[in-house]
Amino acid sequence: MTATALRGEVALRHISKTFTLNGQPLPVLRNLSLDIRGGESLAIVGPSGCGKTTLLRLLAGLERADGGQVLIDGRPVQGVGTERAVIYQEPRLLPWLTVLENVAFGLEVRGVPRSLARDRARRYIRLVGLSDFEGAWPRQLSGGMAQRVGIARALTVQPEILLLDEPLGALDAMTKLTMQEELERIWREENVTMILVTHDLEEAIFLADRVLVLSRDPGTVPRLIEVDMPRPRDRSEAGFVEMRRLLMAEFGLH
Amino acid sequence: MAIQTLDTPRTRPDPARALRDGAGRFLSRWGLVIGFVVLWQVASTLGWVSPAVFPPLDRIAVALWDGIASGALLDDIAISLQRAGTAFVAAVVLGIPLGLLMGQLPAIERALDPLLQLFRQTSALALYPVFILLLGLGETSKVFVIFWATLFPILLATIGGVKEVDRKLIEMARSYGATHLQVFRRVILPASVPAIFVGLRLSATTALLLLIAAEMIGANKGVGFQVMNAQYNFQIPLMFAAIFLLAFLGLAANAVLVALQRRLCRWSVTDR
């Protein structure tokens, strides 16, 4: 059991990242260390420019840290990897592929035979409730449907770690709530580590075991807040409301 | 709190109205063409314009039919299509791969771009005498001048298409572990297809344009030659027959490319 318990475990060790903007160094992350348990759901919140998306891109291997190390299941991250899948704010579907082909894309580029890839894709299309749209083109889908296809594509490669970069940020309020419940269900059923960047505090409380709060000043020590509430969570319940008050206070809001 | 259900009976579709809408659409699209044809015929028969310069359409139709039935115009069409077709195919075979390469390698594109812009801005017709000097007055110089003018629209459109590919899609593919070749084949190439077709259609039009110019100089066959020749011999209906034939060839080439584009780009909504 020890071997499987390690799956999807993430360790950040003294991570630093500085960008250059108009010739000026712009530090976004400074000496950040954090352990994320396998199967945990972690939300990263903070104002824009706080480095939350940068952190996610480091985890995805799309960006390199200037200092420190990202370890996944004990091994340092060298670039993109098959044990991670990213879900972006935009669904990033290929417009010339049908829903089924898009969902199978991740497996096909990894060399999985087409029929096998499509069988697996069908399973996850069913999971996100789009079985009737397998043959549809992306342009025929609504925003929420397209994002569901993006989620199915990520799940189809059966990652240990799901990296979500404001995945519901572009959706309307109603769809967003539905999709939050769907993400919660998927996380429970698929047994993955979920790292979610969001600017929606309620979304963080609804989905996360712990919330990492970053501030725009990388000198400020990031705070980690435990969300200890039974699931699925009720947004109108007293504990939930109290947690939201607590998180908003982190940003000086009320 | 009260909740009310709003259930309104559905209205039935009206067949007479659908017919009216259909006729309206047809007229708005073809009305002006029909009006133009009718005006030409009436103006020419009633002598509002000189029938020697603008012969009535029925005489043009007869000249066209005679030319086709006797096979004379068919020979002209064949040789013209051969010239324009050879040049077009050569431009496509060179232009698309070169454009795909240049669009992906900024260093090559930067180095070649000033030269390309210079060539493109130099009228192919101005260079035709140079090509004749180099290649003689035969078929080669004709095909080459058409090729030259046809190459640039397709090349530049392909480069543009590749450069416009959404970086986010490329990043997505890379994050799933796609190799460079897979990114090219599965993302860059399909994403460039609509832009390439814009170039193809522009190139096809250019090919026909240059064909006529090339055939007006030093040719003794071809639709372009026939336009000139008929005018010299004052066979005005035949001249117009050849002109209409050219317009038809252009429309046909465009229609073929549009049909091909629809087949290849079923996923996009771009029409025409």
Automatic annotation (TrEMBL), chain A:
Span of domain ABC transporter: 10-241
The reply to whether Transport figures as a keyword in the UniProt entry is yes
Q: What is the lineage of its organism?
A: Bacteria, Pseudomonadati, Pseudomonadota, Alphaproteobacteria, Rhodobacterales
Q: State which Enzyme Commission number(s) the record gives.
A: 3.6.3.-
**Keyword terms, alphabetized:** ATP-binding, Hydrolase, Nucleotide-binding, Transport
Q: What is this protein called?
A: Aliphatic sulfonates import ATP-binding protein SsuB
The domain of life for this entry's organism is: Bacteria
Q: What class of enzyme is it?
A: hydrolase
Q: Give the molecular function GO annotations.
A: ATP binding; ATP hydrolysis activity
What InterPro entries does this protein's entry cite? AAA+_ATPase (IPR003593), ABC_transporter-like_ATP-bd (IPR003439), ABC_transporter-like_CS (IPR017871), ABC_transporter_ATP-bind (IPR050166), P-loop_NTPase (IPR027417)
Family classification: Belongs to the ABC transporter superfamily.
Give a Pfam family name.
ABC_tran
Automatic annotation (TrEMBL), chain B:
State whether keyword DNA damage applies. Answer: no
Alphabetically ordered keywords of this record: Cell membrane, Membrane, Transmembrane, Transmembrane helix, Transport
What is a single cellular component term in the Gene Ontology annotation?
plasma membrane
In this chain the ABC transmembrane type-1 domain maps to 77-257
- State what protein this is by name: Aliphatic sulfonates transport permease protein SsuC
Under the heading InterPro entries, the entry gives: MetI-like (IPR000515), MetI-like_sf (IPR035906)
What is the role of the protein in this entry?
Probably part of an ABC transporter complex. Probably responsible for the translocation of the substrate across the membrane.
Q: Is Cell membrane tagged as a keyword?
A: yes
What superkingdom does the record give?
Bacteria
Membrane topology annotation: Multi-pass membrane protein
Q: Which SUPFAM superfamilies match?
A: MetI-like (SSF161098)
What gene makes this protein?
Answer: ssuC_2
Q: Which residue ranges does UniProt annotate as crossing the membrane?
A: 30-49, 84-103, 115-137, 143-162, 183-214, 234-260
Q: Cite a single GO BP annotation.
A: alkanesulfonate transmembrane transport
Location of the protein in the cell: Cell membrane
The similarity annotation says:
Belongs to the binding-protein-dependent transport system permease family.
